[in-house]
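Technical annex B. To support the medicinal chemistry partners, we prepared a structural model of the target in complex with iron/sulfur cluster, based solely on the information shown next.
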Amino acid sequence: MQKKQLLLHICCAPCATHAIEEMKATYDVTGFFSNSNIAPEEEYHKRLAEAQRVAETCDIPLVEDTYDHASWLEAIRGLELEPEKGERCKVCFHYNLSRAATYARDNHFDLFTTTLTISPHKRSQTIFQLGRELGPFLEADFKKRDGFKKSIEKSTAMGLYRQDYCGCEFSRR
Ligand code: SF4
């Protein structure tokens, strides 16, 4: 039987390692690097290059979305001082997930999901709720079954760059 087509929003390479492996067992996976939240731009390109390396190693295609940090800043305007896990992060998830949902719909994917749920700093239920509102979202909680630990082991084995802040300039403070 033909596998369903899944668009996997990839937030960064370390998080993708484990998520791709889990999803490939069941789905035909395409990665989607859509992260206009990342600043500065050099950091964006560094994370993209590492995501491309993981995609090649895992033998999946990776689509790069347009990088538009100015538009992302506009979306989170007024929430700059929010703490991590607060309202700014919700808007940030919505921004990236809605781009993934649109790409999935326009390119006839059966489902979309995101690697964001692997992080212990991100609430999976918040991400699920946003995903459900946007389209045919697969509720994959990658932090389950030691997912985060496995992603660290895999990214260490691959010698991947592991960033020390979430992504936006406000998470660097
Ligand atoms: S801290 Fe991370 S999730 Fe929150 S707004 Fe910044 S980049 Fe997005």
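Notes passed to the chemistry partners:
Strands lie at 4-9, 27-33, 62-64, 111-114.
The radius of gyration is 15 Å.
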